[in-house]
Amino acid sequence: MSGKPGPSAASRPFGERTERSFFCRSCKRVHRGLWVPEGWYVVERAVGGGARHLRLGLYCSLPCLEQAAAGHLAEAQAVNAQADLARDSARIVERAETMLHQGMTIRAAGDALGVPTSTLRHWLRGLWRRRGYRARPEN
Ligand SMILES: [Zn+2]
After folding, report:
1. pTM of the model
2. Which CATH number fits domain 82-131: 2.10.260, 1.20.1740, 1.10.10, 2.60.40?
3. How far is the CA of 61 from the centre of ligand 1 (A)?
């Protein structure tokens, strides 16, 4: 049976499949072929909503996958740590502000919240600058 060429086969000779290069993102090993080589790992990240997964890479072996995962993990942890810190500082600075309104000094508020005075002052300045206040926390 000759069959009909698929829509994507129109641009190449009938019946011929194009070889592709697959390479391992960790060790840079290259494999030429029609498909992802047997035993390799394909890493995809779901983006949700039924959208096509985002392909992060191909890995030729578990050690290569592991090495890459460690890199992804370190990157993700750094991003999460930054987000955590930003969230924590926002929460702390909000509580500190309430304490200041109640007449506490920055030092006393910092002590109560377990934050060094200089750090708390820095966060408050950032908050007030974002709001456009000109007042500077001096106490
Ligand atoms: Zn590899």
Report:
1. 0.45
2. 1.10.10
3. 6
